[in-house]
Specification:
Elements (H helix, E strand, L loop, with lengths): L1 H10 L6 H23 L14 H40 L7 H37 L9 H18 L2 E9 L2 H8 L1 H18 L5 E6 L2 E9 L3 H20 L2 E7 L11 E7 L3 E8 L6 H17 L5 E3 L6 H4 L1 H8 L6 H20 L9 H10 L12 H4 L7 H8 L1 H15 L4 H13 L20 H16 L10 H9 L8 H9 L1 H10 L3
Parallel strand pairs: 6-7
Antiparallel strand pairs: 1-3, 1-6, 2-3, 4-5
Helix pairs in contact: 2-3, 3-4, 6-7, 7-8, 12-13, 12-18, 12-20, 12-21, 13-17, 16-17, 17-18, 18-19
């Protein structure tokens, strides 16, 4: 109720006019613009503030406030029209021939009729506006494709239909190979033009009943609906479609780029020329049926298969295979990590997605040159769930204590970081093929409670001496803890959790990662909503 009260006070009460809503949205847009300008002004030793904020951020934030406001406006108009019609009928019934004050009653009737007519106009206007805002809330502004919110809804519907019709579907995770090189060489306008063209080619390669969504950056997800009821036949169908997609994307694109005119200044503005550009992609595919229990893992599995395709050089397709998966190899460690913990399985699902989203944003902003690439982000994604594996060494009564820990108990609890590193070091000795993954897991386990100002534990590291993996996990772990319900506290709202974390920029958390977090706030909230406990 607090958020709704704040919304209504900002819009001028329950009977706000559409113009009031527009003013509020303009004010919001100005605030977002000012916030982005502030980012450009941050002094950075890495000279990294050549950052382009995506247009989608402002649109999404504005659309959510507008959506609620317009829904309230519609409801108010409907109630006024309904009440007005009742009052109109009642007043007409009181007017009789020869009534001395009939003219006064008629005047009141006329005024009431005007009010009803005005609200009917408002209702029609708000319905049109609501339709436009819904488009922003559920579709990517650049490509017009469904966004993550709509994708999650479509995925849920497919699972339900698979169960009803005993069919299979497929989720395809697609990542454009070396997309960053295009942006760096020719500019983001060329990159945007390519993303739009890719979206169109994907749509033309599938059926109308299938879903093509932009997942973020240069990642797309395709949901193939109502495949065969036999898994092998369904996989064959999915392979045919994905091969068609891969072939369609390989055809050259005609892109427009700005060219330097050199010393010729006879014409104003940069010269625009057309270039031919060839684009390749890596595709990961996972088959799924009507098993609702698998819903939160489907996109993760498709994502893992995509990383497998990318690690083999790209421009290829790989199907998720749990039996031969790196994730399956780590499954025993995952099981161990959750044996003695209070966290739910969804906590692991959420934190994996938070880490990937935050790391990708930091990569796009070039915050840590040389420290983040697709392979490193893949390792972060797959090892996040091992961050608290050391808690298996902490007494059960301490882990599950509902009251505040005593100073002595807190000293014991802190040792889970070093215990975690020791467990993972031992696992690394027995699994040479997982050395890179487990090195990342060790960095996360040992460093995710270190603080930027040196006040954390276990080593009191500070600043860039803290491994980047630990600095990322520190933000993710605190966010998920704040928004989660515990025996000793109620869950915080997304807004309050974000405010708390950003207030500790430069003290508890890496200030550069906080700037990346601000740009991913909406995606953090969507992840939290899609994988609730």
């Amino acid at each position: 109720m607090k958020d709704k009260t704040k919304l209504m006070s900002g819009l001028g009460g329950d009977h706000s006019r559409l113009s009031d809503i527009t003013k509020s949205l303009d004010a919001l847009a100005d605030a977002i613009k000012a916030d982005k300008q502030g980012l450009f002004e941050i002094a950075s030793p890495l000279d990294l503030m050549l950052f382009r904020a995506e247009k989608a951020e402002a649109a999404l934030k504005a659309s959510e406030i507008a959506l609620e406001a317009l829904q309230i406006l519609q409801k108010n108009s409907l109630e006024i029209i309904k009440a007005g019609d009742i009052a109109l009928a009642a007043m007409k019934a009181t007017i009789s021939e020869g009534d001395q004050d009939a003219h006064l009653k008629q005047k009141a009737l006329d005024e009431l009729t005007k009010v009803i007519e005005k609200n009917a106009i408002n209702l029609k206007a708000s319905a049109l506006a609501l339709s436009a805002v819904n488009e922003l809330a559920f579709n990517d502004p650049l490509t017009g494709l469904p966004n993550r919110r709509l994708l999650n809804d479509r995925l849920q519907q497919m699972i339900i239909k698979n169960k009803r019709w005993e069919t299979y579907s497929a989720a395809v995770f697609l990542d454009l190979d070396k997309f960053k090189r295009l942006n760096d060489e020719f500019g983001h306008e060329a990159g945007d033009e390519l993303l739009i063209a890719v979206g169109k080619r994907l749509q033309s390669s599938v059926r109308e009943s299938d879903t093509v969504a932009r997942y973020g950056g240069d990642e797309f997800v395709i949901l193939l609906n109502r495949l065969n009821g036999n898994l092998l036949d369904a996989r064959t169908e999915a392979e045919a479609v994905t091969t068609k997609i891969l072939t369609a994307l390989m055809a050259p694109y005609s892109l427009h780029v700005h060219a330097d005119k050199g010393t010729d200044k006879t014409n104003e503005g940069p010269e625009v020329k057309s270039i031919e550009y060839q684009c390749f992609a890596s595709l990961g595919v996972v088959m799924f049926d009507g098993d609702v229990a698998e819903e939160n893992n489907i996109l993760d599995w498709a994502d893992e298969a995509m990383y497998w395709a990318k690690s083999e050089g790209g421009r290829t397709i790989r199907f998720y295979d749990a039996a031969n998966s790196a994730e399956q190899t780590l499954m025993n460690l995952y099981d161990m990590a959750t044996q003695n913990d209070i966290e739910t399985a969804n906590h692991g699902i959420r934190t994996r997605q938070y880490v990937k989203t935050l790391a990708h944003r930091a990569q796009q902003m070039n915050l840590f040159p040389g420290e983040l690439n697709d392979q490193i982000i893949e390792r972060l994604f797959k090892t996040t769930q091992l961050h608290d594996i050391g808690k298996t060494k902490i007494p059960y009564v301490i882990i599950h204590k509902k009251e505040k820990l005593t100073p002595e108990e807190w000293v014991i609890m802190k040792t889970h970081t070093t215990f975690g590193a020791e467990i993972l070091e031992e696992a690394k000795k027995q699994n040479a093929s997982l050395t890179d993954f487990l090195n990342t897991a060790i960095e996360i386990a040992i460093a995710h409670h270190e603080h930027w100002d040196g006040s954390g534990y276990p080593k009191s590291l500070s600043g860039f001496d803290i491994p980047l993996a630990g600095r990322i996990m520190a933000i993710v772990d605190v966010y998920d803890a704040l928004i989660s319900k515990r025996s000793y506290k109620e869950p915080w709202s997304h807004q309050d959790a974000m405010a708390e974390i950003t207030s500790k920029s430069g003290t508890q958390f890496d200030p550069l990662l906080i700037e990346a977090l601000k740009r991913e706030s909406d995606n953090f909230r969507l992840i939290a909503e899609s994988a609730k406990d």
